[in-house]
């Protein structure tokens, strides 16, 4: 048989939380009372409140869309930057015979 | 250590306890620090990175500066000598000085920390505290009907009460002290007299 010695009284008698407030004397403690005492019950009521965001999700998505492009451009090499500029300027593909945008490494032909 | 009292038993099957529990329900006034208990302490000294807190045990407990929510090395908690602290024991065995913290295992304060200004602190026996903290305590329910007030119960036998006026505070203090020796009927009579006034 397993006997565990426990020195505290808390698990024995299922005591409540020590801080209490009544009739709205301290609203924060009243909220805490509900939270703490509901933890004793079988289900833990997950406090399901979305934090109120300063920036809405939509705006966040829009901002991110443009942000990724801007920051990405910072890290392009010079050649790529020029290509990007060309692409922006004329929407249609260039009339000149297309130069290779990115010069791949050409193996030396013997 | 021997204790005398009633042997109590709780069946297995409760949501919290895994197996049945037996304990001796005894009456005593002197508190022995036990890990995990929430207690009210009085700050007596600030000594080298930690506060010395008197919890009514044989030794003073130590409370580190960093054991508060949102405390960093630069951001010290605003605690003076003589303040009241509600915290829980981290470590408390008979070989070492007990250690207290005002923060729970997930890092939040959840109601612990400095107890505010005003209010009244007094000492009762440990049995009364356990009775008051029982899940359905009539005393607390009846008192809560009277006036708005705030109550902090420490497992070390200390209770702190704060109500709107000094008189109301003292009334609550007297009821709590006396209800250990009153029967339920006497208590109801006393409360009825008060709410009548």
UniProtKB/TrEMBL annotation, chain A:
Pfam families: MPP6. This is MPH6 phase. It comes from the Eukaryota. The gene is Mphosph6. Residues 81-110 are annotated as: Disordered. Residues 97-110 have a biased composition (Basic residues). InterPro entries: MPP6. PANTHER family: M-PHASE PHOSPHOPROTEIN 6 (PTHR13582:SF0). One of its GO terms (biological process) is maturation of 5.8S rRNA.
Automatic annotation (TrEMBL), chain B:
One of its GO terms (cellular component) is cytoplasmic exosome (RNase complex). It is found in: Cytoplasm; Nucleus, Nucleolus. One of its GO terms (biological process) is exonucleolytic trimming to generate mature 3'-end of 5.8S rRNA from tricistronic rRNA transcript (SSU-rRNA, 5.8S rRNA, LSU-rRNA). Keywords: Cytoplasm, Exosome, Nucleus, RNA-binding, rRNA processing. It comes from the Eukaryota. Residues 1-27 form the Exosome complex component RRP40 N-terminal domain. Belongs to the RRP40 family. This is Exosome complex component RRP40. It comes from Corythaixoides concolor.
């Amino acid at each position: 048989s397993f006997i565990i010695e426990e020195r505290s009284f808390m698990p024995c008698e299922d005591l409540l939380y020590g801080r209490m407030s009544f009739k709205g004397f301290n609203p924060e403690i009243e909220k805490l009372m509900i939270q703490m005492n509901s933890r004793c019950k079988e289900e833990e009521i997950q406090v399901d409140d979305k934090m109120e965001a300063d920036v809405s999700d939509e705006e966040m998505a829009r901002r991110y869309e443009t942000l990724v492009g801007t920051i990405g451009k910072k890290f392009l090499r010079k050649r790529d930057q020029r290509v990007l500029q060309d692409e922006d300027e004329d929407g249609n593909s260039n009339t000149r015979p297309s130069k290779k945008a990115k010069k791949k490494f050409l193996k030396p032909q013997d | 250590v021997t204790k005398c009292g009633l042997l109590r038993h709780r069946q297995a099957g409760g949501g919290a306890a895994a197996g049945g529990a037996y304990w001796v329900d005894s009456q005593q006034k002197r508190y022995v620090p036990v890990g995990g208990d929430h207690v009210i302490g009085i700050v007596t000294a600030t000594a080298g990175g930690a506060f010395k807190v008197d919890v009514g045990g044989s030794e003073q407990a130590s409370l580190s500066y960093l054991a508060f929510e949102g405390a960093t090395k630069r951001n010290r908690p605003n605690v003076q000598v003589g303040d009241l602290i509600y915290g829980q024991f981290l470590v408390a065995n008979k070989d070492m000085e007990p250690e207290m913290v005002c923060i729970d295992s997930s890092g939040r304060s959840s109601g612990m920390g400095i107890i505010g200004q005003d209010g009244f602190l007094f000492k009762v026996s440990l049995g009364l505290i356990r009775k008051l903290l029982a899940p359905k305590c009539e005393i607390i329910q009846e008192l809560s009907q009277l006036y708005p007030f705030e109550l902090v119960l420490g497992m070390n036998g200390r209770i702190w009460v704060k109500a709107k006026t000094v008189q109301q505070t003292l009334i609550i203090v007297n009821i709590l002290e006396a209800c250990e020796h009153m029967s339920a009927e006497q208590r109801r009579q006393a409360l009825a007299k008060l709410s009548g006034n």
